[in-house]
Amino acid sequence: MTSLPFWNVQNYPMDVLQRFWDKVQLEYLEDGSPNFEKCMIWIGSKSHGYGQFYYKRQYRAHRFSFECFNLDDITKLLICHKCDTPSCVNPHHLYKGTDLDNIQDCVQKGRNQKGRQEHTCVLTEQNVHDILVDIYNQKYTSVNILAAAYIVSISTIVRILDGITWSKETTEILANSEITLSDLRNMIMMKKRNILTENNVKIIKKMLNDESYSQADIARHFNVDPSTISMIRIGRNWSHIV
Q1: pLDDT tens-digit series, residues 63-78
Q2: CATH class, range 14-109
Q3: Which stretches does DSSP call E strand in 31-165?
């Protein structure tokens, strides 16, 4: 058997590792050892340019490769490419990072991130997964706050939850759960708005007089509809509060 570049730090079954590396195109040095300077290209199935590998669950191939070589907890992290080659699974070409790291890397290298442009930020499949999980765990109190957290427009979140964009990915993510996309939409869209108190309104009026706050910012802060802030601003509601 040809020398394979795996270190089994996760103690995966050897047949699983063999199956994985059988789908990788390698270049070798004269001594027969793998060339870690060159990209190791995944030749198996792909999605959006990234290799796909199944072992108990669906993996991005490069993420599985990284796990083979590292014991680090990467649960909430992305695995990024130094080489900018999505199909590369060479662990020496990979590094762990956050969404921000990935976006900054994109800007610095003057390229488009391997995702889809959604108004103010580039969403990745991992982002979409995290958005659904955050909604299920009720991490955010409104769709406005959720959108702000991912630096996207509210309509971007709504299109995902309506199944207009990322429908294939959301179907795969929810395939083995009892939760539907409609359930998640209702969880975040149907949340009750806060009922304002007189003290809230006094603070809101002070914030309206401060040009550093937009009406949308104030609405998100108090978890109310933006129209509520607008009515306060023009004196239609709470006019007796000064």
Answers
A1: 898 888 887 777 767 7
A2: alpha beta
A3: 41-42, 46-47, 50-55, 57-60, 78-81, 94-97, 116-118, 121-123
